[in-house]
């Protein structure tokens, strides 16, 4: 061990991504996958993926002291994952869990030119992740524990999330601020059929900050509505249904389940956040909101922030990097509005590169670009007749502040 003390721990799902380069003219998938056919491909891009890698490395590049706690097998894929992480910093992998009994998770990404990608994913060691994998001494000195993608980790959603609840409770009892990210499972799988409303009801009393995407949380809490909407939109983009009042409704459900801060990722449209109105619940967040002044700023607020203008190259890991920006803001002791701006700023740096993390600079560079007049996009969601609550701010190109807001 280096003796270096991490301020943020990123745990949960990690995998190895193998992306063959497919040249030539655009081709349909059924033309590629013909029995007996040899498809000539180019060099494979090999990288790490998942919440542990994407959010963790982004936080490292922003300048945070990070420890990663993903789980890999004692195999060649596991060695490759650790090798890639070590190139960023050997200290990142000191908390990684290596299992001799499990195989490492991997994803083969089939991405022909101008064609939607197909992912062949093996969950591997992620399926065996348990509360016992986490030793309490590893948490000493840390301020934030972020856990990502439990829907892609079998032990986390089986038995109505008993293992997930046990793990989060174990961390919260050590006094850390707990953050949770989700993922939308394949509807045809065990994870897709799990009772996510019950799982979240049990887990969120031990979660301070819940940061799912709009699509994920609609799927988990309103499956019937999700299925109707998916039939209505051929493109599969549900964000056309993300009205202001529905965002408030979803956030209120998650707050009532026990979370103190709810952030809903809205893709190219930005980030929405709503916070608890209960002083005692907000103060229980822990080491990231210790001062009374900061608690007063975060209490009973509802905000939506639009994205910054960029020339987008790729969106891989954009949500994970947005979360990294949010956590960075917390660690810096920023007020809520500045934390949201930081989150979408880091997300914007992400999409300027094809991969998940190479575009992420030090946190000071994010704010340097904002201070130099980085423009934000117009909000394109339907926010008409939105009845907001608490401190009400729309942070966009015209910085509209509703009545009663700061």
TrEMBL record:
UniProt-recorded Gene Ontology molecular function terms: kinase activity
Domain Carbohydrate kinase PfkB: 10-361
InterPro entries (alphabetical): PfkB_Carbo_kinase, PfkB_dom, Ribokinase-like
Pfam annotation, one family: PfkB
Keywords associated with the record: Kinase, Transferase
Family: Belongs to the carbohydrate kinase PfkB family.
Protein name: Carbohydrate kinase family protein
Source organism (scientific name): Paenibacillus silvestris
């Amino acid at each position: 061990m280096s003796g270096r003390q991490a301020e943020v721990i990123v745990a949960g799902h990690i995998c190895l991504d193998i992306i063959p380069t497919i040249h030539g003219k655009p081709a349909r998938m059924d033309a590629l996958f013909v029995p007996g056919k040899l498809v000539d491909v180019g060099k494979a891009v090999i990288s790490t993926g998942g919440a542990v890698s994407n959010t963790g490395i982004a936080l490292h590049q922003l300048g945070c002291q990070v420890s990663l706690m993903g789980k890999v097998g004692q195999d060649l894929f596991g060695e490759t994952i650790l090798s890639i992480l070590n190139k960023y910093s050997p200290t990142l992998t000191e908390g990684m869990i290596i299992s001799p009994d499990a195989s490492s998770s991997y994803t083969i990404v089939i991405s022909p030119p101008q064609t939607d990608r197909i992912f062949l994913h093996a969950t591997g060691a992620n399926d065996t992740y348990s509360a016992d994998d986490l030793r309490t001494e590893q948490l000493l000195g840390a301020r934030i524990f972020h856990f990502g993608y439990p829907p892609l980790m079998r032990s986390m959603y089986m038995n109505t999330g008993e293992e997930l609840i046990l793990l989060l409770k174990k961390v919260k009892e050590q006094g850390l601020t707990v953050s949770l990210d989700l993922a939308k499972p394949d509807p045809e799988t065990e994870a897709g059929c799990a009772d996510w409303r019950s799982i979240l009801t049990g887990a969120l009393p031990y979660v301070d900050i819940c940061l799912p995407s709009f699509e994920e949380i609609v799927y988990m809490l309103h499956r019937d509505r999700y299925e109707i909407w998916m039939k209505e939109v051929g493109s599969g983009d549900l964000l056309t249904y993300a009205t202001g009042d529905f965002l408030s409704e979803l956030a209120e459900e998650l707050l009532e389940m026990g979370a103190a801060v709810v952030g809903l990722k809205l893709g190219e449209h930005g980030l929405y956040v709503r916070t608890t109105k209960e002083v005692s619940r907000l103060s229980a967040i822990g080491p990231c909101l210790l001062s009374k002044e900061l608690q007063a700023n975060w209490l009973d607020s509802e905000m939506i922030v639009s994205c910054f203008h960029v020339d987008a190259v790729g969106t891989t890991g954009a949500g994970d990097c947005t979360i990294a920006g949010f956590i960075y803001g917390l660690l810096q002791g920023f007020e809520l509005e500045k934390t949201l701006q930081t989150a979408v700023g880091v997300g914007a740096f992400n999409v300027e590169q094809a991969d998940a993390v190479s575009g992420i600079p030090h946190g000071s560079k994010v704010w340097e670009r904002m201070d130099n007049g980085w423009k934000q996009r117009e909000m394109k969601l339907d926010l008409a007749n939105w009845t907001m609550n608490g401190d009400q701010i729309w942070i966009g190109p015209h910085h509209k502040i509703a009545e009663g807001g700061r």
